[in-house]
Design goal:
TIM Barrel, alpha/beta, 290 residues, single chain, 8-stranded parallel barrel
């Protein structure tokens, strides 16, 4: 990966307004989020296949009451019935004060119920009926091993059109990468297509090489896996410095283009905490303090 220097303040600047993921079933981690995160931070609550989505209600309410912004995951293929989705939406809005969700297809070969993809959930109107109009969908800078690239592009365009027609506030959260080039190139292609939807760039927080490789295999990010296995010096840098080398290149490309700390349309960075929530937040705070 090409190394590009960025202004000393750029790393700290790019970390403003970051978002982070937590597992709603890990009570101690949710409580730690209440203690460690700045008010207004978006906290994404993951939906693990096989778990009850209603288990997100209580942690989402706790986060909301503490001044944080809960963003529950909605896995389209995990939803068992339309009634379950309606109940989930009502409880999120009514009991937990949720005003935004991330809708993804869901890591399941066959749907558990009536929804095959995220667009179907959006079109159901379940969230619109309870006043949840902020919706995020997934972006794939390195593609998706289970979906051809042209179908990924068509699906994203369909969601963008639906959101525009329905007056939804749509954003995109990308899959994590260990290489900056796919991220920068994907963002450029998106903007060249006239898409100005806000994007959160997904990154893995600091973790061991084995952990990073395991999640790369599980999530199907083949190009990034090659970076870890074939570029040993850069892989070592990722382990020692966390995602700083990737952020530095992204920041430098933005500064070259428009003098900003982030590329045009990027709302912030989104952290997957494969190495642990505390380790990731400690790393972020250390970088912001420099």
């Amino acid at each position: 990966m090409k190394q590009v220097s960025a202004a000393p303040h750029s790393i700290a600047t790019t970390l403003r307004g970051y978002s982070i993921e937590v597992h709603p079933g890990e009570t101690k981690v949710v409580d730690l989020a209440l203690e460690r995160l700045d008010p207004g931070t978006e906290v994404f609550l993951t939906w693990i296949p096989g778990t009850n989505p209603m288990d997100m209600i209580e942690p989402a309410a706790k986060l909301h009451s503490a001044g944080l912004v809960p963003v529950p995951h909605v896995g389209a293929r995990h939803i068992e019935t339309a009634e379950q989705l309606e109940c989930f939406a009502k409880r999120l809005a009514g009991e937990a004060g949720v005003d935004r969700v991330l809708i993804v297809g869901g890591d399941r070969p066959k749907p558990a119920g009536p929804f095959n993809n995220s667009l179907g959930v959006m079109q159901s109107g379940a969230f619109q009926r309870v006043g949840i109009l902020r919706m995020a969908v997934a972006g794939f800078p390195e593609g998706n091993p289970n979906i051809p690239e042209h179908l990924l592009q068509e699906a994203l365009q369909s969601k963008l059109r639906f959101a525009r027609d329905e007056g939804l506030l749509l954003s995109i959260v990308t899959q994590f990468c260990f290489d900056s080039a796919p991220i920068v190139n994907w963002l450029r292609r998106l903007r060249a297509q006239g898409v100005d939807t806000p994007v959160r760039v997904g990154l893995a927080g600091p973790a061991s090489l084995m952990t990073l490789a395991r999640y790369a295999v599980r999530c199907g990010i083949g190009n990034s896996l090659h970076v870890l296995t074939e570029n040993t010096s850069f892989a070592k840098l990722l382990v020692e410095k966390g995602p700083e080398p990737i952020i530095r290149v992204i920041a430098a490309s933005a500064e070259e283009a428009n003098g900003d700390a982030l590329p045009q349309g990027v709302a912030g960075l989104h952290f997957f905490v494969f190495g642990g929530f505390k380790k990731t937040v400690d790393w972020i705070n250390a970088q912001r303090a420099q």
